[in-house]
Amino acid sequence: MAHADPSAEIPLCLVVTGGSVLLRSRKRERRVKAADFFVGALTTERQPDEIILALEWPRAPADTSHAFDEITQRHGDFAIAAAACQLKLDRCDRITALSLGLGGVESRPVAIDVSRFIGQPLPEILSALADHASASADPMEDHAASAEFRRSLAGTLVRRVVEKAHADARTRRELVQ
Ligand SMILES: Cc1cc2nc3c(=O)[nH]c(=O)nc-3n(C[C@H](O)[C@H](O)[C@H](O)COP(=O)(O)OP(=O)(O)OC[C@H]3O[C@@H](n4cnc5c(N)ncnc54)[C@H](O)[C@@H]3O)c2cc1C
User: Fold this and answer.
1) Residue 110 Cα to ligand 1 middle (Å)
2) Domains delineated in the chain
3) Is the pLDDT of residue 177 over 80?
4) What is the phi/psi pair of residue 101, to 5°?
5) Phi, psi at residue 11, to the nearest 5°?
6) Which candidate, 12, 31, 99, 107, has a CA 20 to 30 Å from the CA of 133?
């Protein structure tokens, strides 16, 4: 978290799960939402006299599904792009809660505004959701990938994580029936 590599997995997961960073200096302790903590590549809201004391991970309700995926040039390498998802569906596959984020695409992990998809039937809006994630990204360009390639990966990865979380939600539903 302190290092704030744009491609790192833990920062993206903390943003998507709505977690916080607990910071402490000699004089004070403060809490910053993970979504507000990252300023850009290798840069955070942490002041020079502060250390990260803890990461606070909210406990999701038991019927919440999660999924993560990333694309790397080599196994174990830094991600060119990553996506994470936290999802809750009702019995008719309508989205009751959704949190979605991208890592490695912009200079910091970002949450995507998906409010317009809440209440919608997931199978019917999956393509629109992936297109929305891809269109709303402001991808960076570097030695590993062009901005347009990252934009394309963003859509692909969002589709994959939402499909994975959907499959997980269906399995959970069958287990309790
Ligand atoms: C070959 C390779 C592959 C890697 N692949 C990945 C990958 O796929 N995904 C991924 O996420 N990471 C990856 N990493 C990054 C690796 O996880 C980093 O080492 C890590 O992000 C930084 O932690 P550190 O312990 O190495 O560094 P440190 O040097 O311990 O810390 C990094 C910075 O944070 C500061 N810091 C440490 N702790 C605190 C604290 N509590 N409060 C405030 N500041 C603090 C340090 O002063 C330093 O400036 C990879 C690294 C290598 C070398």
Assistant:
1) 19
2) 9-56 (3.30.465.10), 65-176 (3.30.390.50)
3) no
4) -150, 160
5) -55, -45
6) 31
Instruction: Confirm or reject: Cβ of 8 under 6 Å from ligand 1.
Output: yes
Mapped onto helix, strand or coil, the DSSP state of residue 42 is coil
Residue 17 vs residues 53, 60, 68, 100, 176: alpha-carbon distances, Å: 19, 8, 12, 9, 24
Return the best residue to mutate from 56, 77, 78 for the ligand 1 pocket (most ligand atoms within 8 A of CB): 78
3 lines ligand 1 (CB under 6 A): yes
Structure-block tokens of residue 134: 């891809």
Residue-wise pLDDT tens digits, 76-102 = 899 999 999 999 999 999 999 999 999
Evaluate whether 107 touches 41 at the Cβ level (below 8 Å). Answer: yes
Q: How far is the CA of 88 from the centre of ligand 1 (A)?
A: 32
| Per-residue model confidence as pLDDT tens digits over 31-81 | 999 999 999 999 999 999 999 999 999 999 989 999 999 999 999 899 999
Could you read off the pLDDT of 102-150 as tens digits, one per residue?
999 999 999 999 999 999 999 999 999 999 999 999 999 999 999 999 9
Distance CA 26, CA 39 (A): 23
Q: What atom of ligand 1 comes closest to residue 72's alpha carbon?
A: 8
Distance 28 CA to ligand 1 centre (A): 25
* Ligand 1 pocket check for 5: Cβ under 6 Å: yes
